[in-house]
Every structure is written in structure tokens, then in C-alpha cells.
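Researcher: I'm preparing a figure for a lab meeting and need a structural model of a single chain. I don't have an experimental structure, so a prediction will have to do for now. The sequence is pasted below. Please return the structure as C-alpha cells so I can convert it later.
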Amino acid sequence: MVTPVATAAGAVKAAPWNDPSARPYVEILRVTKSFGEFKAVDDVSLKIYKREIFCLLGASGCGKTTLLRILGGFETPSSGRIFIDGEDIVPMGERELNRIRRKFGMVYQYAALLDSIRILDNVAFPLVEHTRLSASERRDKVVEKLRVLGLDDSILTKYPSELSGGMRKRVGLARALMLDPQIVIYDEPTSGLDPLTSRSVDDLIDETKRRFLVTSIVITHDIASCFRIADQAILIDEGRIVARGTPAELAHGDSDVAREFIVTSGVDVDAITSHRR
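Model: Understood. Here is the structure written out cell by cell.
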């Protein structure tokens, strides 16, 4: 059955992952990554479409991080192909890969801010590395991004330790957005956060998708977060995809591994999916 989605004008069309004519923005074809005889990623194929939120769900050690490094061009797969906006990145050299990496913004677990420097310098870091903007121009861009994300310039002279967990997440996201990436990757964005702050981070991911029109890839083991925000999701177990689809399809599909993973989490996914935007 083709899943309908509402357009901005109110018309209904097929969701991209159910539309044979839709072109994926990110496509992974039969990718395997072996370390000796151990397969960290085992024959994985997936498609991610523009401006959707795609969750890679799984327990620690399941292969999510290795797949993420392959996607970003930091690990070469043992076999398979990876297309970013139609370009196969597997045979690329370092210069070409750096061009592709500019399409990505990364929001790290716990925000990964540098504790020894001010917020201004944390957020401006990509501009220092990749542009020739003056210090005043960099400051203006930092202030602009922070304001869009609900933070004002009063925090520019503060250090990360002076901010709340939710504010640090916003600062980390501002840094990831400084070079206007087309894809934002979130690595365990709700890890270590209380439920209320986790919900605010979920809202931030959804808001960022809508406001900046980015494609979002969320690496997580947080069932509740995934089911709140995902357009599509996959569940990885021992390097293989064991379930895929919308959150509702994961919850009510025929994968025993997915059902066990959800039940073990203790999350009432039906209550979450029934309130998704």
C-alpha cells in the first residue's frame, strides 16, 4: 500500500520511499564492512530521501557507528556502493571526499563542544577552518545561527560548562549548520538527557528539518525519540538490517527482533506514534 502524505498546498501524494519515481538523496547498496572475519556491517542497503528524518536504530555495538563512518567517507567499505546526490563516493580520493563531506553537518553525542574555548569560538570553528571570513563576519554568522535556534548573543562569551544540556545541544547544532550543509547527522542526540530535555531535542531536530530544509540522519538507540520524529527508520542488529519502514511499520511488522527490541525498551510506541505531527 502506498503511504499518502500531505503537501504544503494540501494535496496528497505518495511518500518518497513508496514512490518508484522518487530519487534518493543518499543510497547505500549492499555495503559490507569486515574487520578480519568479523562483519561490522553486513550487506546493508537503504535509501534516504531529501528533507526527511531517517533514524538508524539499534543497540550499542550493532554496527550503527561503522555505518555512519562509511557514509561520511571515513571508512571504506569492504564491498558495496554509496551514492550521495547521485555520486558514488567509494572510489573517490581524499580531495573529492572532502568536497562531499561539506554536504554534511555533524551533531555529536553530548554536543562535543570544546570546554576550553567560548561559545563564539566553538560555533565559529568550521568557518575558521573552511572560509576566509573576517572575525567580525564570523561573529555575525554565529549570532544569526544562534538566534534562529532560540539563543541570543549573551552566551557568546560563556563556556560550555555554563550552559544547560539542552542549550549545549542547540550550540552543537548551530556549529553543524555553519557551512549550510544539506545533510545533518545526529549521533545519539538524546543520550544522557532527562525525558523533558530529550523531548525538546526531538522537537529541535524536527524544527531544524523544517526551517533549514535539511535531510536528517539520526543514529540512536532511543525508541521513544525515533518514534516521535522519524519519517523512516531501520533497526540494525549484528550489522544487518532486521526491520525497516515507518515507525508504525516497525512497531507492527513481522520482525521478531524489532518486536523484542521495542518491548524491552518499555516504551508505549502506539501512544507516541498516535501523536506524531
